[in-house]
Amino acid sequence: MKKREPISKIMSQDVITLNTQQGLADAERLFKKHKIRHIPVISGDKIKGMLSYTDLLRISFADAVDDEDKSVDTVVYEMFTIEQVMAKALTSVTPNHSIKEVAEILAEKEFHALPVIENEKLVGIVTTTDLIKYLIDQY
């Protein structure tokens, strides 16, 4: 295992994003379609927050619906905006942070995903799943 391997080696670069003008029903559709749990929220090319599937579960019964079901009951989603539900106080990393440093941040803060930022622009996302896959590849 390389001690200073950068997070850019394992981060997802093709990031699914939401913008602040989209609705929560759009978010749920993206979560289910792409089988992901975290979506960065952007305005232009700047990150404004992070929305997790858990954030949706807190305000709805989204988990009571079959993951394969593409229809979404949007009544509760129309009561909130993405900006009201997303996490705004973000911790981010750069592509040059080491995998070890990122793992320490995720463990210490009990996060499951971090946006990867370079020159104030979102360039990727790294998740605990990315770290687990990396560790599996090492053995």
Automatic annotation (TrEMBL):
It holds the Pfam family CBS. SUPFAM superfamilies: CBS-domain pair. It comes from the Bacteria. The keyword Transferase does not apply. Keywords: CBS domain. Residues 11-68, 86-139 form the CBS domain. InterPro entries: CBS_dom (IPR000644), CBS_dom_sf (IPR046342), Diverse_CBS-Domain (IPR051257). Coiled coil: none annotated. SMART domains: CBS. Gene3D superfamilies: CBS-domain. PANTHER family: CBS DOMAIN-CONTAINING PROTEIN (PTHR43080:SF2), CBS DOMAIN-CONTAINING PROTEIN CBSX3, MITOCHONDRIAL (PTHR43080). This is CBS domain-containing protein. It comes from Mesonia sediminis.
